[in-house]
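We were asked to recover a plausible sequence for a given structure. The inputs and outputs are reproduced exactly as logged, with field labels preserved.

PROBLEM: sequence recovery
POSITIONS: 779
GIVEN STRUCTURE:
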C-alpha cells in the first residue's frame, strides 16, 4: 500500500487545478553553467520551458568567482573548486540567496549532497516542498574520482545517507526503472516516480546543414562514430579508446570524433598516440550547444562508455537526430549494474557497427550517403544487447510538463494555499486483476483508493482569503463572517464499486455572507442581464466561432417569466435533470456518488451530477470548463444563491439562459424555433423533447435537421413521459393523450437543406449525424 502523501500517480489531473497557475520554482544544483554536463542541460532546458509557460524559475548553485550568466535568475553562492570536477564545495548560501530560496513555492534538488543538505536546512523548516531527481550513479562516480576509497566504504556511505535524505523529501524521481532499482539497493524505502529525461526534438530532427566532413579532415566514405560529453574520468573514455583501437583494425575507415573538453583530454590524446590510432580520432573540444545538431547530422553512429549517467541526454539527443547508439549502459539501465572491463565486447560492437555502415556504403554504390535524420530512428545495429535504443524520439519529449505536474501535486499534498491549514491523508493499494471500462479500455490492476480531508475550525473569511484569487476569481468581492469545519472522505475500490463511499460534512452554514459582488446580487433582482456566449458561425462561412450577446430579463421580448412557463416543461426537466429540485438545497450527495460511479465505469467524464441550480449558476456566472476550480466556485455560489433566490426565480433564470441548440439560447426562442409557439403552450410531448436534448443540444439538433425523430428517440421520449406519469407529474388523461400524440417540428425558421444542416452539426460537434439513446437514470 502506498502512502497518499508520496504517490504522485494517485492524484487525478483535476486536482491540479487547485494550485495557482504560475509558480516560483527553485532548481538547486551543486554545479551549473559554464560546466558542461547532462544535468546542466537538463536544468537549462526545463528552466526555459517552464519560463515559457509563465513560471518564475531560479537556479541556486555555486561558483568560485564572478561569472556573467547569459540567462536571468541564476543565483550563485561562493564555493571552493573540487579538484578538476567542475564542482564547488560550500555548506551555505549567501544571505540574499537563502532569503530568495525561502520564497519559492517548490524546490527541485538535482544533487543530493551539498544542494540536498541545504534544501533540508533552508526549506524543510518552512514547509517548502522538496523534489529530488537522482541523475547519477554516485557509487561509480566515486570510483572514478576517489579510487583510493574502497568500494565497500563508498557503498556504505551511500546506504547511510541516501535513504534518510529521500525520506526527508516530498517526492523522489528517477529517470529510469534501472536507476530506481539502484536507489532501492541503497536502501531507499519511499515510492519513486519515473520521469524520463527529455530533449527538445525539433533542432535535432531538423538540424539544417550538417558540418562538412572535410572541415574535420574526414572523408565521405569514412564511418564516423561520435561521442559528446565531458572528457572526465567518469565517462570511461580510456575504455572506449581501447575498444575503438580493436575495431579500427578491422575497418580502417572507421573514425571516432569526440566533442567536449575536460581534465582527461591530454591523457586521452596521449593514449590515442600510443595506441597508433591518432589518425582515426578527432578531439574537437567544446562547441556551442546550438551547433550540436549539425555535428550529429554529420556522423553515422553515437558511442559512449559512461556508466555514471542515468538515461543520458546525449544518447537521447543522438537518437533524436536519427543516429544508431552503441553504449555500455543499456544493461545497467535494465539491471542496475555493468561490467567495466569488457574491452573485447565493446570492440565487437564497434566492429559490428562498422560492418553495418560498410554494407550501407556498398549498397548505395557510390551514391550520396543517407543522412541520419532520414533513417529509421533508433534502428538496431545488431542483435547484441549492448546496442539497443534507450528511447524513441516520439518518447523523448520535453518532460518539463511532467515535472510541473509533480510540483503541483506536491504543493497540493502540502496544503500550501497561503494560510489554509488542512490535512489530506489516504492510501492507494494496487490489487491484481483487470478492470474493463464500458468504452472498451482495460486497466491491468484494481486500485483501491481512500482519501480523507480534514479542515479544522477556521474563520470563513480566513478560509476564503487562503485560496489564491486566480483559482477562485468569481468569489472575489464576497465578505464572510462566522466559522467553518470540514471533514470529507472518499473510498473507491475498482474490485467492488458497490462499496464506493463518498461523504462527509462541510459546515458551510456556519458562514454568513455580509457582502456579495454585484453580478451575483443582480440575480435576485428583476433587472436584465447581458450574456456573452461563443457560438458556431452560420453556414456557409468561416469556421471560426463568433461571440453572440443575448439578454436574460424583461428587456428581451423573448424572455419568459416563471408564470408563463408551461408546467409540462418544468415537470419534464425535473424528471430528467433534477427530480428533487424543490426539496434539496442545491445538490444531493447521493447524486454525486452515482455520477462518480458511472464516470468510473465509463472510463471518462460524462455525468456531472449538476442540479438545476448548478446549471443555472454555471451558465450565468461561470464557464463550462470541467475543472475542480470551477466546481469549487460553483458549489459556493449555489449555496449562496439557494439562500437568496426562490426556487421559481432559479427556474426562470435557468430556462432563459440555457442552450437549446446551435446559436439558440433561452426557452422563448427555442419554443418558437422548434414548434412555432410560445413556451406557455408546450405540450407534454414537446416538453419531453426539450428535456431529452439536454445536456447536448448541439449534437441532438440532428433531429430538427431530419425533420422528424428516429424510432429510438421516439421510444426515449415515451420513456420520459412514462416517468412523468409514474411520479405524478402527468394525470392519466394527460399521459394517454401525450402517448397518442405525434411530435411535429415547425420548419418556418429552417434555412438549410437537410444535408447542409447535418454537415453543419457534424462540423461544429465532430460527431456523426445520428446518435444513440443517451445514458439516463430517468430522474
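RECOVERED SEQUENCE:
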Amino acid at each position: 500500500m502506498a502512502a497518499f502523501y508520496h504517490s504522485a500517480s494517485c492524484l487525478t489531473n483535476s486536482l491540479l487545478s487547485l494550485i495557482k497557475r504560475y509558480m516560483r520554482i527553485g532548481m538547486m544544483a551543486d554545479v551549473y553553467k559554464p560546466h558542461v554536463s547532462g544535468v546542466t542541460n537538463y536544468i537549462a532546458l526545463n528552466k526555459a520551458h517552464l519560463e515559457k509557460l509563465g513560471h518564475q524559475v531560479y537556479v541556486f548553485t555555486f561558483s568560485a568567482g564572478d561569472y556573467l550568466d547569459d540567462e536571468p535568475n541564476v543565483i550563485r553562492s561562493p564555493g571552493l573548486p573540487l579538484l578538476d570536477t567542475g564542482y564547488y564545495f560550500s555548506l551555505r548560501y549567501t544571505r540574499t540567496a537563502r532569503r530568495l530560496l525561502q520564497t519559492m513555492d517548490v524546490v527541485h534538488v538535482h544533487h543530493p549532497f551539498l544542494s540536498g543538505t541545504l534544501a533540508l536546512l533552508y526549506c524543510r523548516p518552512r514547509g517548502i516542498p522538496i523534489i529530488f531527481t537522482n541523475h547519477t550513479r554516485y557509487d561509480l562516480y566515486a570510483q572514478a574520482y576517489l579510487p583510493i576509497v574502497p568500494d565497500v566504504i563508498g557503498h556504505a556511505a551511500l546506504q547511510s545517507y541516501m535513504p534518510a535524505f529521500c525520506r526527508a523529501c516530498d517526492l523522489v524521481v528517477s529517470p529510469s526503472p534501472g536507476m530506481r532499482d539502484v536507489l532501492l539497493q541503497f536502501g531507499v524505502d519511499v515510492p519513486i516516480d519515473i520521469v524520463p529525461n527529455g530533449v527538445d526534438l525539433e533542432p535535432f530532427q531538423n538540424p539544417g546543414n550538417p558540418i562538412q566532413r572535410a572541415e574535420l579532415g574526414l572523408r565521405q566514405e569514412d564511418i564516423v562514430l561520435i561521442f559528446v560529453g565531458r572528457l572526465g574520468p567518469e565517462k570511461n573514455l580510456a575504455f572506449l579508446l581501447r575498444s575503438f583501437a580493436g575495431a579500427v583494425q578491422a575497418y580502417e575507415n572507421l573514425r571516432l570524433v569526440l566533442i567536449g573538453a575536460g581534465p582527461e583530454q591530454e591523457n586521452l590524446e596521449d593514449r590515442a598516440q600510443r595506441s597508433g590510432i591518432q589518425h582515426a580520432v578527432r578531439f574537437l573540444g567544446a562547441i556551442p550547444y546550438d551547433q550540436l545538431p549539425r555535428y550529429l547530422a554529420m556522423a553515422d553512429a553515437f558511442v559512449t562508455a559512461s556508466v555514471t549517467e542515468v538515461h543520458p541526454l546525449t544518447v537521447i539527443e543522438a537518437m533524436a537526430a536519427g543516429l544508431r547508439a552503441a553504449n555500455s549502459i543499456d544493461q545497467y539501465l535494465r539491471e542496475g549494474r555493468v561490467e567495466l572491463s569488457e574491452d573485447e565486447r565493446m570492440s565487437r560492437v564497434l566492429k559490428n557497427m562498422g560492418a553495418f555502415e560498410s554494407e550501407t556504403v556498398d549498397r548505395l554504390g557510390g551514391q550520396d550517403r543517407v543522412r541520419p535524420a532520414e533513417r529509421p530512428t533508433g534502428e538496431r545495429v545488431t542483435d547484441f544487447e549492448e546496442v539497443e535504443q534507450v528511447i524513441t524520439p516520439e518518447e523523448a519529449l520535453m518532460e518539463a510538463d511532467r515535472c510541473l505536474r509533480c510540483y503541483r501535486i506536491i504543493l497540493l499534498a502540502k496544503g500550501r494555499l497561503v494560510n489554509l491549514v488542512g490535512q489530506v491523508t489516504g492510501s492507494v493499494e494496487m490489487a491484481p486483476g483487470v478492470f474493463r471500462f464500458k468504452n472498451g479500455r482495460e486497466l491491468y490492476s484494481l486500485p483501491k483508493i481512500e482519501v480523507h480531508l480534514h479542515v479544522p475550525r477556521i474563520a470563513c473569511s480566513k478560509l476564503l482569503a487562503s485560496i489564491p484569487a486566480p483559482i477562485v476569481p468569481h468569489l472575489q468581492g464576497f465578505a464572510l463572517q462566522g466559522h467553518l469545519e470540514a471533514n470529507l472522505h472518499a473510498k473507491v475500490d475498482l474490485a467492488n464499486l458497490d462499496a464506493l463511499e463518498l461523504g462527509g460534512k462541510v459546515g458551510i452554514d456556519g458562514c454568513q455572507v455580509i457582502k456579495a459582488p454585484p453580478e451575483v446580487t443582480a440575480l435576485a433582482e428583476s433587472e436584465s442581464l447581458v450574456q456573452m456566449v461563443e457560438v458556431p458561425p452560420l453556414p456557409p462561412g468561416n469556421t471560426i466561432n463568433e461571440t453572440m450577446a443575448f439578454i436574460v430579463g424583461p428587456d428581451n421580448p423573448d424572455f419568459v417569466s416563471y408564470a408563463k412557463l408551461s408546467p409540462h416543461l418544468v415537470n419534464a426537466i425535473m424528471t430528467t435533470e433534477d427530480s428533487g429540485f424543490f426539496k434539496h438545497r442545491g445538490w444531493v450527495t447521493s447524486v454525486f456518488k452515482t455520477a462518480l460511479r458511472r464516470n468510473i465505469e465509463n472510463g471518462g467524464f460524462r455525468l456531472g451530477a449538476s442540479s438545476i441550480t448548478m446549471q443555472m449558476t454555471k451558465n450565468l456566472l461561470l464557464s463550462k470548463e470541467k475543472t475542480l476550480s470551477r466546481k469549487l466556485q460553483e458549489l459556493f455560489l449555489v449555496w449562496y444563491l439557494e439562500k437568496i433566490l426562490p426556487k421559481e426565480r432559479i427556474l426562470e433564470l435557468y430556462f432563459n439562459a440555457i442552450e437549446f441548440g446551435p446559436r439558440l439560447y433561452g426557452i422563448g426562442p427555442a419554443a418558437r424555433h422548434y414548434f412555432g409557439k410560445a413556451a406557455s403552450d408546450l405540450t407534454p410531448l414537446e416538453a419531453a423533447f426539450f428535456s431529452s436534448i439536454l445536456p447536448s443540444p448541439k449534437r441532438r439538433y440532428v433531429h430538427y435537421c431530419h425533420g422528424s425523430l428516429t424510432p429510438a428517440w421516439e421510444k426515449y421520449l415515451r420513456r420520459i413521459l412514462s416517468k412523468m406519469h409514474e411520479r405524478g407529474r402527468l394525470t392519466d388523461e394527460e399521459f394517454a393523450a401525450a402517448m397518442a400524440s405525434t411530435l411535429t417540428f415547425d420548419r418556418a425558421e429552417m434555412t438549410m437543406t437537410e444535408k447542409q444542416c447535418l454537415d453543419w452539426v457534424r462540423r461544429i460537434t465532430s460527431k456523426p449525424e445520428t446518435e444513440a439513446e443517451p445514458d439516463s437514470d430517468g430522474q
